[in-house]
Records
---
Amino acid sequence: MRITGKVIGMSLMAAMATGCSTLSSWNPFASEVKDKPAALVDIKGGMAVKTAWKYSLGKAGAYTFNPAFAANSVFVADADGNVARLDAATGREQWKVKAGSDLTAGVGVSPNGNLVVVGGVKGNVIAFDGSGKQLWKVQATSEILSSPVAANDVVVVRSGDNRVTAFEAATGAKRWSVLRTTPALTLRNAPGIVIAGGNVYIGQPGGKLLALTLTTGVPRFEVVVAEPRGATELERVSDVSGTPFVYENDICAVTYQGKVGCFDLAAGTARWNKPASSDVGVGVDQRFVFVADANGAVNAFAREGGQSAWKNDKLGNRRLSTPASFGRSVAVGDLEGYVHLLSREDGAMLGRVATDGSAIRSTPVVAGSNLIFQTQNGTVAAIAAE
């Protein structure tokens, strides 16, 4: 049996029990939670944390929608086809449009805020200008789960068949396309794309990180973050999770059932790697690389050398989001819509704030003095801390 397209709504053990010979994708978020999420305890002392503003959008459904920040605005989308631009400081809606299609991924925004791109059902790629006017609509080769990325003159999209395609920002004309092979079994997640230094970096199935020249798609390097290991296809799943993170001359990434590591941005030379397993991406700042692992622990590694700095395991089985460095804290969302703030120095709990009770799967984004989260039920929340 080959499972494609739709989310697998069964536990990992159930998947093994079906007798499937080949699986194409497995969604860790769709699997049953075997262990009860850790109970939340009162936080004494800590720091003042509050919700600066909230905005209500539609639900994400089976997909993950990441907010984006550019030109003092936050850009958001939902599964029903709504795309909106908000003032980052106040949450005031600047415009909201219908994409004309249900959506599966977004949002990608150019640095100047003049190009906004989302992924639609059946592989549609839809682009708008900074005022919400549709510019073009083109067809990718298959379903899009990863947020598109946009420079000022090009849009890059990764489709479900692991084809990376670049389109002209002005017209939607195809500039280049690169197809990579995939293992028999991969995570059904949204491995991210990032543009930096004239290259585009794409997390790959099988634990690899691929760098392509942005203008032509010519490969610059492909490095192994973690080698797949194990006797079965399930044990050998070691895909790069979430979006690789660029900080100065480093690019850092984490895999599921594998490792976390940082590499030289230009050459791909490995700086360090350490054992880790996560189905979301990494957070990085000047001193640390943060990983929310598959068991719900938040880990900090020294950015220089990779030594373990601290580990907080008080959020076990709470399905944590990608961490984000935020002032003197590191913040993560969870399966019940809570945002937790931990000390970036030692991992101690500093604060907590509720959103709407639904899971936070999106990658948080720093927008000025606020940290933006989007829940699966469509609440966009700006979190502010002292």
Note: Confidence is low (pLDDT under 50) at residues 1-24.
---
Amino acid sequence: MRRFGHSLRWALIKAAVAGTTMVALAFLIPLGLMVQQTARDRSFTAAERQAAALGPALAITTDQDAIARAVASTDAGAQRRMAVHLPGPAPAEAVPGAAMVGPDGGATIGEAHAASADVSTAGGQGRSFTVGVPGGFALLQPVAVDTGRTAVVEVYVADDDLTRGVATAWLVLSAVALALVAISVLVADRMGARIVASARRLAAAARSLGAGNLAVRVPVDGRAGAGSPEELREAGHAFNTMADRVVQLLAAERELAADLSHRLRTPLTVLRLNAASLGEGDAADATRHAVSQLEREVDQIIRSARRAPEDAPAVTVGCDAAEVIRERVGFWSALAEDEGRRWQLAGADRPAQVPVQRGDLAAAVDAVLGNVFRHTAIGTAFSVDVLATESSVIVLVGDAGPGFTDPESALQRGQGHGGDGSTGLGLDIVRKLAESTGGDLALGRSAVLGGAELRLRLQTRPDGAPGRGSRRRTRSALFHR
């Protein structure tokens, strides 16, 4: 994973360097060439201005001293880069329009760099142009001094003038390009670090989940543009959804195992009661021992199924208490009919949602009804009432037996004093289930049947929550046989 992180960051950095370099070259190279051409044009434009500055003086006079003073007054003349090629005197037979310059009888003022032929060509053609000379270029500018005669102003432009400031411009542009590349590398590295960190967290969470840590989740920042990219945030959400689904599936699997084990309680109770009536003998003892062993194995399965892993997150699972109670009473009714017990179920005709798992509530109902069959005589009637209020669901289980002589001692049976065939959990299962919702478990005497009564209160909302506080209770005077 570390090698993956480094390779991803390096890939992003290389891509940033390549992209920024291409963009910088595409813009900076033409810009540098334009700066170079601008410096060249600036030098020749300055030379043309220097040459044009002598035009008024040549139009007034061709006196060599006056022209020499005019040349010296210019910047190019002061730097010995300007020369004036004066035309010679016009002969009497001269053809109008002809001109003689410099070597053709005229004088040259200043330091000349251009060849005589080029000067004569400029004077003869009457147009300015540049010619290459050692160390640079010479601008030749013809100036008409009078009818038929033309002087030529020469301005020397050195090669250094053509490239003055170009090197500095290239250095500045190169520095800008390097700065852009460095900034892109920094941004790419920071982006890569965030992406790699998010990918590492996702991989670590996947490994932890694979190792059995069901509580692991990937922290996901919901803000757009913050933290990891949108794709990795979606992957994190998908991972968390998958982990939640795994937890729910495991919880459902434990609930199913517990439910299937609870379904075996009724036939096992019948077998245990039938085995108790077999009398004495080796065969009877072996049967009773086998039934007890089978019951202990089923109880162990129930306890294992109800025991969630320590690192498993809490999963809020609700169920319909009325449906669960109808199902469990229906299972126990078969044994009640065999033993001649009258039974009554009231108030379970409407949904009553409680914040407990279905398997846990079924285990609690089985524990309560199992105590009725275990601790009362055959033929003793029992009843189950469901009362739903705005803040709780109350389950009342009463019987016509002798009742509780010591309620506190009866609760202690849930801690391992229930005798042979007990799960070792007893009423403690019921008490813990009630307390997990904020409710409670109370033992008393049934006002209807006269025997013991157990009141299981499952809290569905806080005590201080608003509500009308009404309750629903339907009692039927009809006992089933």
Note: The chain has 14 helices and 13 strands.
---
Amino acid sequence: MLIYLRVLKESFNFALNALRNNKLRTFLSLVGVTIGIFSIIAVLAAVDSLKQEIEGSISGLDNSTIIIMRFNFGPTDIPRWKWQQFPDVTYDEYQYIDRNTPNIEAATFTLNVPNESIKYENNQVDNVPIGAVTDSYYDIEALKLGEGRFFNGSESNSGSMVVVLGDEIANQLFGGAANAIGKEVRIYGRKFNVIGVLEKEGAGLFGNSKDTSIWMPVNVVRRIYGDNNKKTFPQIVVKPKKGVDEAEFIAVLSQKLRIKRGLKPDEISNFFVNQMQGFADFIDEITGSMNIIGLIISGFSLLVGGFGIANIMFVSVKERTNLIGIQKSLGAKNKFILFQFLFEAVILAVIGGLIGLFLVFIVSILASQFTGDFEFVLSPWNMFIGTAISAAIGLISGILPAISASKLDPVEAIRTGM
């Protein structure tokens, strides 16, 4: 074990000497590895950051959550012209499902409506996203209140004129969440009482954030828009109880809605039952494809870097032929010479990889600064991958030069090197 540590130390010294004595040659040889590692880790980090941001934006919804609507999350065998004619889900269907489907932990009915302006005295915020939901949305989405409360079941059913604000909306209208509770604002030309303000969340990847949104009882919006308005996009969101067999639950849920709609056994379901798990799998599939494409592109840089390392090692063998002959004449075994050059190749490649990782680290800091609340993630796992790939490139690139050095005849090596 001691001899390998000595070999490693000598190889490290030789690698440093190569960097010092042949700066330009070494730089040109390592630049391929540096660019390759930078490309790979930058792609992995960017994809991880994107995935984390998307998952964070839907983190309030459990993967078991089910969304019923007339559109499907992914591909479907039903022709486009047919599913475009599907009817929207209704509030009555939501109530029927909530009352008659077993093993439901919570269910909510939501409408997606055009953005509106919200006004308080002389302060006005335009283009505000409105969440028209029932009271149970608070539990399904796992909302967190900074001040006040969310509207209750009685207020939801009666369509009380109450509203819950995002943190940024409260700041723009009242100068802070604490000042908002109990105040009256105007939305749709009507007065609404502010009963709650959510905790600050921060901006999302695409600019969407709960901080800039408001929530009101869905029955208020139903009175304004009506039940047959195509500007709305109704959905029934259902969260099953924990431990329930999801396939069986979905089958029962679908059957209940089929019964409510009076569909015959030979008729297809004119609605889609979408799972959040399916959406999560879709995200994984997209990010996985992005990783593969990035790795293929970065692989070309690593290939160039590998040839560069091999080239510098062959030159190193030639320059140190005399030294190799002396080492062998003094009893150094072929294995000692082999490991010496192999370690040197690995060390050179790892140095190039570490430079690439450092560049990714700098870029990640700059990217996080310029993109605001979007966090560019450079995980320890990605750093480990970068270092491991560098070492592998050095090992592969250095194996042939190391073998050629270990097989040199000591007498010929000394004579050739003189």
Note: The chain has two domains: 1-57+282-416, 87-270.
